[in-house]
UniProtKB/TrEMBL annotation:
<keyword id="KW-0812">Transmembrane</keyword>
<feature type="transmembrane region" description="Helical">
    <location>
        <begin position="81"/>
        <end position="105"/>
    </location>
</feature>
<feature type="transmembrane region" description="Helical">
    <location>
        <begin position="274"/>
        <end position="293"/>
    </location>
</feature>
<feature type="transmembrane region" description="Helical">
    <location>
        <begin position="12"/>
        <end position="34"/>
    </location>
</feature>
<dbReference type="InterPro" id="IPR000276">
    <property type="entry name" value="GPCR_Rhodpsn"/>
</dbReference>
<dbReference type="GO" id="GO:0004930">
    <property type="term" value="F:G protein-coupled receptor activity"/>
</dbReference>
<feature type="transmembrane region" description="Helical">
    <location>
        <begin position="232"/>
        <end position="254"/>
    </location>
</feature>
<dbReference type="GO" id="GO:0016020">
    <property type="term" value="C:membrane"/>
</dbReference>
<feature type="transmembrane region" description="Helical">
    <location>
        <begin position="126"/>
        <end position="143"/>
    </location>
</feature>
<feature type="transmembrane region" description="Helical">
    <location>
        <begin position="46"/>
        <end position="69"/>
    </location>
</feature>
<keyword id="KW-0472">Membrane</keyword>
<dbReference type="InterPro" id="IPR053071">
    <property type="entry name" value="GPCR1-related_rcpt"/>
</dbReference>
<feature type="domain" description="G-protein coupled receptors family 1 profile">
    <location>
        <begin position="10"/>
        <end position="290"/>
    </location>
</feature>
<feature type="transmembrane region" description="Helical">
    <location>
        <begin position="190"/>
        <end position="211"/>
    </location>
</feature>
<dbReference type="Pfam" id="PF00001">
    <property type="entry name" value="7tm_1"/>
</dbReference>
<dbReference type="InterPro" id="IPR017452">
    <property type="entry name" value="GPCR_Rhodpsn_7TM"/>
</dbReference>
<protein>
    <recommendedName>
        <fullName>G-protein coupled receptors family 1 profile domain-containing protein</fullName>
    </recommendedName>
</protein>
Length: 347
């Protein structure tokens, strides 16, 4: 049985505001990185990670919204929304972790093998990785989706308020369902937190050592080499922000997997909210790292805004030019004047 639906209005508003911020920032990230001038295997992977992060907070916000509405209307439909949203949030959060780990491995290979590395980590490899990781995460959560029915159970608390619990009936037997959460916690801790953190940390150190060695061995470097170095440093910082953002969640999952009876603040509802906010903050920082460390991204972002301003100014100038032509043309024929005015209105 799930905990009763008890999300507060303040928590809902906070999640919705954070969702809007992440949606706007990650939309700019995807648009700029996927523009024809910036489109590379690395930029495509960064855009995919931004998409996964946005979907994670989207379904995470849907949990709170459905919990708030269902908890007050005592509607069992909210139980279905909460469970589906929780499953999808887990899948996309896991995909974000795996994709960031793959990004670290990809950069490590490129740093170690500067000539053959880019060919090994090309667009085809990214596509294969994205498909395999998506299928793997869906397969991992498949037992949790084998639901026969969800019942809404209304209980009365000590303060005489009615609360709704979600009682889920699975197709699997009760013995399998009882051990499933424990198995998920072990898999989540080792496969989605500990091992990725170790791999990313190793790749970060390795890339920094390679960059430092190249600086020491070459006194002068070409513009292309400097661009590669800045890209490596930028991606290393993205990895570091990811590890910091995931650290509270990793501690929480560790305690839930191995110390289920030990009290821990991060495993409470307040601690869980803190872990989620830390994750969202790490999502929002990424765009500022791109702006600060990537000239490509800055140029793409400026061209995105400048093109809009220039097209608006060009349209305005064309209208003013047509109006000036109208004022200089004698209106001997009223039908011609009406036709010119109509053309201006259409533009």
């Amino acid at each position: 049985m799930y905990n009763y639906l008890n999300s507060t209005l303040g928590n809902v508003l906070l999640k919705v505001i954070l969702l809007m911020v992440v949606f706007v920032t990650n939309s700019f990230v995807a648009i700029v990185w996927l523009s024809p001038s910036n489109r590379t295997p690395v930029s495509i992977l960064l855009s995919i990670i931004a998409l996964y992060d946005t979907l994670t907070i989207t379904f995470g916000s849907a949990i709170d919204v459905a919990s708030y509405i269902g908890g007050r209307s005592l509607s069992v439909d909210a139980c279905y929304v909460v469970m589906a949203s929780a499953t999808l949030a887990f899948i996309f959060h896991s995909l974000s972790i795996i994709s960031t780990t793959y990004l670290a491995i990809q950069r490590c290979v490129i740093c170690a093998f500067p000539f053959s590395g880019p060919r090994l980590c090309g667009l085809r490899t990214n596509i294969i990785f994205a498909i395999v990781s998506l299928v793997s995460m869906i397969a991992l959560k498949m037992p949790d989706l084998l639901i026969s029915d969800i019942e809404g159970v209304i209980n009365i608390l000590d303060d005489n308020t009615s609360v709704l619990y979600c009682n889920v009936n699975y197709m699997l037997n009760d013995e399998a369902i009882s051990v499933l959460p424990k198995i998920y916690m072990y898999i989540r801790f080792f496969a989605l937190h500990l091992i990725p953190a170790c791999i990313i940390s190793f790749c970060m150190v390795f890339c920094l050592l390679i960059v430092n060695r190249k600086k020491m061995t070459t006194s002068e470097s070409s513009e292309q080499q400097r661009t590669k170095t800045r890209t490596t440093l930028m991606l290393t910082l993205i990895m570091f922000i990811f590890i910091v953002g995931e650290f509270p969640t990793t501690i929480s999952v560790f305690y839930r997997a191995f110390f289920t009876k030990e009290p821990m603040w991060l495993t409470t509802s307040t601690g869980n909210r803190f872990c989620n906010i830390t994750l969202v903050i790490s999502y929002m920082i990424n765009i500022w790292v791109y702006i600060a460390m990537s000239k490509q991204f800055r140029d793409g972002l400026l061209s995105l805004f400048c093109n809009r301003v220039m097209s608006s100014n060009k349209s305005k100038a064309m209208n003013e030019s047509k109006l000036a032509n109208i004022s200089s043309v004698p209106c001997s024929n009223s039908s011609n004047c009406h036709k010119i005015c109509d053309d201006v209105k259409e533009t």
